Structure formats: C-alpha cells, structure tokens
TrEMBL record:
<dbReference type="GO" id="GO:0016874">
    <property type="term" value="F:ligase activity"/>
</dbReference>
<dbReference type="InterPro" id="IPR015421">
    <property type="entry name" value="PyrdxlP-dep_Trfase_major"/>
</dbReference>
<dbReference type="InterPro" id="IPR015424">
    <property type="entry name" value="PyrdxlP-dep_Trfase"/>
</dbReference>
<keyword id="KW-0436">Ligase</keyword>
<protein>
    <submittedName>
        <fullName>2-amino-3-ketobutyrate CoA ligase</fullName>
    </submittedName>
</protein>
<dbReference type="InterPro" id="IPR015422">
    <property type="entry name" value="PyrdxlP-dep_Trfase_small"/>
</dbReference>
Length: 113
C-alpha cells in the first residue's frame, strides 16, 4: 500500500487490498500520526455543548475553542435540545433502561406511545 498521506482521506483506508487486519491498522495509524504531527487532525474532536446546528468545541491542536456550524449531528429538525423531547427520553430510560437494543424481528418492540 503506497498512499501519499498529504492527499489521503479516510476513504483511502476503507477497503485496502492485499493487507491483513494488522497491516491495515498499521497503515491507518501511520495516517493518524501524520495528521497529528502536521496539526491536521480533526478526528474525534471534543464537543463541549449539546448537539444542534451550532456546537462548541474544546481547544485541541489547531482547533480553537469556540462555536462551529455542525453538519453532522442529525438534528435537522432542531429537537435534540427541546424540553419535551428530553423529558420523553428520560421517561423512556426510566421505564426501559438503556441499551442499543436489537432488530425488531428478533428482539421485539416496545409499546411506546
């Protein structure tokens, strides 16, 4: 695998041919190290606010602490911080607990109303 790290993206490491899992991990680690050393790392940033169209990030490396527009939080309806949504989520957790669940086909469904 001969990747020019200066022009690489995570896509380049998605399905490399001819490498076992350990070689793939080593190549990916080489890429992450390159990003860190050159202050290009914007992977796993620390969010210090709730999710919404604007989020606050902690200062890390080249990222300055402040508010940034977020295009990745799946809050296109603006409900993540809505008080009624939060109350309903808390009530659901108190009744059913937390967990990833499973497919309704094998795990059933909850009578949520």
């Amino acid at each position: 695998m001969n990747i020019n790290l200066a022009n690489a993206s995570f896509k380049d490491f998605e399905n490399p041919r001819g490498l076992d899992i350990f070689q793939r991990a080593a190549e990916h680690e080489r890429y992450l190290s390159y990003l860190k050393e050159n202050e290009f790392m914007n992977y796993r940033l620390t969010v210090t606010s709730g999710y919404g169209p604007v989020i606050e990030l902690a200062e890390e490396g080249h990222i300055k602490k402040g508010e940034y527009v977020s295009f990745v939080c799946n809050d296109y309806l603006g409900f993540t911080q809505h008080p009624e949504i939060k109350r309903a989520a808390i009530a659901g957790i108190e009744k059913y607990g937390t967990g990833a669940g499973s497919s309704p086909l094998i795990g059933g469904v909850f009578p949520i109303s």
